[in-house]
Design a protein that fits this description.
The protein is mainly α. The chain has 6 helices and no strands. Helices cover 87% and strands 0% of the residues. It starts with a helix and ends with a helix.
Length: 182
């Protein structure tokens, strides 16, 4: 079955599939950035010393530099505001990428569905008359539509599975990196 999906979907639409995977990966990276920005944000709110180690200290120093570049007062509130603004911006960009990725997946699944329907319709046109005359019109339409809709749903589910796997790998890598720093 996987071989069928590979031939029908991925091999035929490899450029679109590659673009979808690229957008998924970028979306997962932005999710990790949002997660990474939450650590300095929590450190600023709690006044914790967690922001004084390694990469987190570099991020906090970078946020302080952004505050200075924007000519804001050098206070914790200003750094907190800039951090929230960055988290919001990253969240909006990630949301736009998610919508774009979903639209791409839907476009590919619709094209695949249309191609399968065309292939099945072609098979019915080439069928012998006695095979068609024994079947009702509704049965023929259902035999054309049902497999195509099933493949469309599989394409969408596969895309969702791939997104979840990419996000899982990205977030777990980041968390392992953080635990290694601690």
């Amino acid at each position: 079955m996987l071989n069928l999906y590979w031939q029908v979907v991925f091999r035929s639409y490899w450029k679109q599939s590659l673009l979808i995977v690229t957008v998924m990966t970028l979306s997962a990276v932005l999710e990790v950035v949002m997660l990474g920005l939450s650590i300095p944000l929590l450190g600023l709110v709690t006044g914790s010393s967690i922001t004084q180690s390694g990469m987190i200290k570099d991020v906090t120093n970078g946020l302080t530099l952004i505050v200075q570049m924007l000519n804001l007062p050098s206070r914790i509130e200003s750094t907190f505001f800039v951090t929230l603004l960055l988290v919001f911006t990253v969240a909006v960009v990630r949301g736009v990428l998610f919508i774009f990725q979903t639209a791409l997946m839907m476009q590919v699944s619709q094209v695949v569905q249309k191609d399968i329907k065309a292939q099945l319709f072609e098979a019915f046109i080439r069928a012998a008359y006695y095979q068609l005359s024994r079947r009702a019109h509704g049965e023929i339409v259902q035999d054309i539509n049902e497999p195509a809709m099933g493949v469309e749903q599989v394409v969408i589910a596969t895309g969702s599975l791939a997104l979840g796997a990419i996000q899982f790998v990205a977030i777990m890598s980041f968390l392992l990196y953080l635990s290694w720093l601690a």
